[in-house]
Every structure is written in structure tokens, then in C-alpha cells.
Amino acid sequence: MKTHTDAPDAETAPQSGKVDFLASLKLVTGALHTQRGRILVSIGLATLSVLLEVLPIWVIYKLILMITSGQATQSAFWLHVGLMAVTIPVGYLCFGLATRLSHVTAFNLLYGLRMRLARHLAKLPIGYFSNMRSGRAKQTMISEPEKLELLIAHAIPEGISALVSWVIVTIWLFAVDWRMALASVILTPVSLGIMSLAIRISYREASAMQDANVKMNESMVEFLAGMPVIKIFGHTHLERQDTAKAVTRLADVQSEMGRAFVPLGGTFYALILANITVILTVGVWLLYICQIGLGTLLFFVILGANYSTPLMRLFDLFHHFAHISLSATSAREVLDQLPQHDSQQHLPITTHDIVFESVNFDYGGGEVLNDVSFSASAGTVTALVGPSGSGKTTLATLIPRFYDVTGGRITLGGQDVRDMALDQLMDCVGFVFQDPFLFTATISENIRYGRPDATDDEVQDAARAACAHDFIMALPDGYDTVIGQGAQLLSGGERQRISIARAMIKDAPVVILDEATAFTDPDSEAEIQQAIKVLTRDKTLIAIAHRLHTITEADQILVLDCGRITERGRHTGLLAKGGQYARLWQDYTLSQSTPLRQKEDLP
Ligand SMILES: Nc1ncnc2c1ncn2[C@@H]1O[C@H](COP(=O)(O)OP(=O)(O)OP(=O)(O)O)[C@@H](O)[C@H]1O
């Protein structure tokens, strides 16, 4: 029997630490062709803008030549001034248009990449997410793709135009006077050498920097999420938190990078500035020996001094490349994760019984379920009980394939759940989680999540059946009240009832309840039990229960211990047997009648 294994550990998967120089480009090449026209126009405009930037220097050179040779006329003077007056704003206009186009391209590609990541993540097995900390997830989805903006919006148009204009200007300089041109470029090989060393250092440090960044992100998210615990245990001093260590580590890595990088950057800029000294020395000497005129000297002083400006742009862009490539690598690694196997075959199912056949399962750290076999007939109630950690939730989550079994098989209506199309399986199964998750949306949108085409009346009927209608109507905007993070906060019991309403509206033939009444108060528990009876009428119900009085009428009770079924039967039969269930029941009834503090405990 084939098994479909879960994804590798997400904590390590997206962070290989290796820098693939072309990773960023490879990541977007598929989408780049859709934006090819925009990119080419943007590069063309950026190049034109750089050339228009140096054109006024040529105009000044021509003017000086005219004046020094006594050929200057008023009309020629105004023509040249007019040309300068046009080229400067046109150059800026071209640069503005190039930037606008490159940003539109970048945002389109980023949108596409994020959608690709989100769609791909939705296809990955749940195991991938349970190993992923929210700080890292945020980094992969939000911060890392953001860095590609620098590549697409700046590096491609500005980098390519800088390179092109640098080559053109070099040729131009040599065309005017090869000796002066040589003086202008003599320091360039040293500058390029320093640039390549700086890029190599930045590639070496980028990995440590990204790692420190991710750790700080994770730590910050945890720090904020754990604030109530931090406060109650008096750990509010940041110095005592791991967060402080993560922040310090990032600062250390940044300083280390600065220490390695700043001297190189400084030398690079100093050499660029030193260019003028060489040009002036050679130029004044050539002027002195009458080899060049004043116009040529001025031309080289102005153009030669600016000659390295494109190099400075490249230097600024290139030292970000390592970070961009690492971000692209981690996004690539997410996209390379194998999606959960989906047969995409809608198999014929006439009944909705669930059968576990010698099921084994482990999360990767030892067996959690061992040789579990049972059959839950359609329309019956199967209760799972057992000590904490015995594997009840794990067993239940295998049915909708949150994880795939590592041995044996699970069938629904006679079909292996792995052979069914995922959407068919999901249509068959409703799940009420122990800690229900509600989206930041209105209450009716949250309930309608169970069936998007449900009418308002159906949403209200489901809420009534889940005993949620009354408290919803008492909220400021009733069913239109926005709930979730940063909005109207609900109690645990209220959230649970909304999630029951959501499951009710889905009306799936198999329902799994993971301690669905855990947060309900005694007054509403009876009502919710009644609602659950309505929800699960004629359905195959698998219910995990710690509150054992809720499952006394179950058709079968499975007692789990250390991942094995140790007892099975009905409530009365299991009590009469006097085994593990009887002991659990005794402990449960005792805990229900024991006050938090006995009278004799009081001082
Ligand atoms: N995502 C996970 N990754 C690794 N181990 C896990 C994961 N979820 C649960 N486990 C382990 O599997 C075992 C069974 O856990 P499970 O949550 O299924 O037990 P349970 O009987 O439902 O417990 P409880 O009654 O406390 O909810 C435990 O040892 C637990 O630590």
C-alpha cells in the first residue's frame, strides 16, 4: 500500500544557508516573460535618462570649443543652451517613467509570487505548518518576497542602464582623446576589484544576517503572543527574554557586516573621487605641452569625474544581491515542497462508515498510534476517550488526512481516504476543533465559511441550532459584527458555538468533534448537547471527550492508551467490566464533585 509522507521539517527546510546567485532571477523568470515589454521599455528609458544626464556635458564641451576657436555665434550659443534646457527635463522624465514602469512590473511580479506561495502552501500537508513558527512563516510570505522589489524595480533597469551607459561613456571618452580617457579609467580596475570583494563579503555574511533576522522575527512574534504569560510571571524586562538575545545577535551580525564592508565601501568611493586628481594632473600637463585644448580638458574634468557614477550605482545595488538571492532561495524552497498527494478522483461512495485497519502513525519521533483497528458505522456515534496524550486527536485528524497514516489504512464508504479526491474527502467531513479558529470577518461570514452559498436564513438557523443566535443578536452589529484579531473578542464558549454553527451549515455526513463543549458553561451545555444531537443526526460521529457524561449514550466507546485501543464497548458494559474506562469514569465523577479547595485545606 502506498504511503504519502509529510513534508520535511519546515524549520530547516526554507533555510539552506546556501546562496544561489541566480535564485532571484530563476524565481521570477517564469513570470518575467509576461512583463517583458514593460521591462525592456523601462531599461531603454533608464539608459536614455543616463545618457541625457551626460549630454549637457557634451554641449558645454562643444560651446567651449566654439568659444575658444572664435567660431561662436549668438544663434549657435542659444541653440546649445536650448538643447541643454530640453535634455535635462527630458532625462528626468525618462527616469521617472522608467521607475514607474519598473515598479508596476515589480508589484505585479510580487503579487504573482505571493499568490503562488499562498496557493502552494494551501496544498502542503498540515505537518509542514505544525513545524513552522509564525515568525518564520511571516518572514517567508511577507518580508522575503519584498526584497525582490529591489531587484525588479531598481536593479534590473538601473543596473543594466548604468552598465550600458558606462560602456558608452567609456567609448566616447576614448573617441575624444585616448590619453585623457586612459587617465579617466586608470583607477577603474582597482574599483571593480574592490566591488567584487565587497560582493563576495556580502554573500558570505548574508546567510548569518538572514538567520539572525528570522530568529529575531520568531522571537518577537512569540514575545507578543505570550504577553499575558510574560506579565503574570513578571518577566517583562526585555533583558530577561530570548527576544533580547535575538535582537542583540542581529545587531552583532550587522556590526560585523559593517566592519567588513565599510572599509571596502569607503575605499571604493575614495577611488572614484580620486579620479579627478589623475584627470587634472594628466590634463594640465597635456594642456601645458599643447597636446589638448581647454575645451577637451574641461570636458574630461566634468565627464571624467562623473564617469564612475554608474559604477557607484552598481556598487549600491550589488551589495544587496546576496540578501535578495537568499530570500529568493527560501521562497523557492517553499515552492519546491511536495504538495499533499491528491488523486483528484471522485470515487463512488454509497455509505459513510469509517474503518481503521491496523493503522500506525508517527509524527517522526516515535509511534503515536499503534495497530489501531475499529469500524464506525454510518449514522452511529463513536467516542474516543483516554488519558491526555494517548492519541485521540491524532486519530481523528487522520480521517480528513491532516496527516497520512504511516501503516495500515483508513476507509470512508469502503474507499481508502488517500485514493479519494481531497475536495471529495473534505466535503464528506465536518470538524469542530478544540480551539476553534475564527477569521477576522463578520459572524455571518465566519458561519458561512462552512457553505459559501448558504442564505442569511440558513446562517441564522445554524446559529440558532448551535445556541449562538441570542448572544449574536446582543452584539452591536448582530450577524454583521466583525470578530477575530483586533475586533470584537468572544469568549471561548461563544467561539465554540460559532464553530459548531459553521460545521452545522456544512452539513457533512461525517462529523468529528474534538472536545466541542470544552468551553461551554453548565447552563448552555445541555442546549449545545441538544444542538450537537441535531448536527449529528444520521451522521457518522467521532467525538473526543474528556467530559465523559457527554458520551454515555455513544454506540461505541474506544479507550485509547499510549496509541493503542485498550477497551471498546458501550458505557454500561465498560463500567461493569471494571477496567480502564471504569477508572476514568470514577476519576471523572470524583473531579466533578470535588471543590477547588476542600474545607480542611483552608487555613
Ligand atoms: N504535531 C505534532 N508533532 C509531533 N508530535 C505531536 C504532534 N501532535 C501531537 N503530538 C504527540 O502525539 C501524542 C498524542 O497527542 P494527541 O494530541 O493525539 O493526544 P490526545 O489524546 O488528543 O491528548 P489530549 O487529550 O491532551 O488532547 C502526544 O505524545 C503528543 O505530544
Strand-helix topology:
Elements: H1 23-32, H2 36-68, H3 74-123, H4 126-130, H5 134-176, H6 178-185, H7 188-225, H8 227-232, H9 242-288, H10 294-306, H11 309-318, H12 321-336, E1 354-362, E2 367-376, E3 381-385, H13 392-398, E4 407-412, E5 415-416, H14 422-428, E6 429-432, E7 441-442, H15 443-448, H16 456-465, H17 469-473, E8 482-483, H18 492-506, E9 510-514, H19 522-536, E10 540-544, E11 556-561, E12 564-569, H20 571-577, H21 580-593
Parallel strand pairs: 3-10, 3-11, 6-9, 9-10
Antiparallel strand pairs: 1-2, 1-4, 4-5, 7-8, 11-12
The chain binds adenosine-5'-triphosphate.
Provide a quick synopsis of the model.
Keywords: ATP-binding, Cell membrane, Membrane, Nucleotide-binding, Transmembrane, Transmembrane helix, Transport. The protein is built from 21 helices and twelve strands. It has 603 residues and is α/β, with parallel strands linked by helices.
What is the CATH homology-level superfamily of the largest domain?
Answer: ABC transporter type 1, transmembrane domain
The proportion of residues forming helix, as a percent range, comes to 55-70%
CATH topology of the largest domain: ABC transporter transmembrane region fold
Unreliable stretches: 1-17
Q: What are the bound molecules?
A: adenosine-5'-triphosphate
Task: Supply the number of structural domains.
Answer: 2
GO molecular function, one term: ATP hydrolysis activity
Membrane topology: Multi-pass membrane protein
Organism: Aliiroseovarius halocynthiae
Protein name: ABC transporter ATP-binding protein
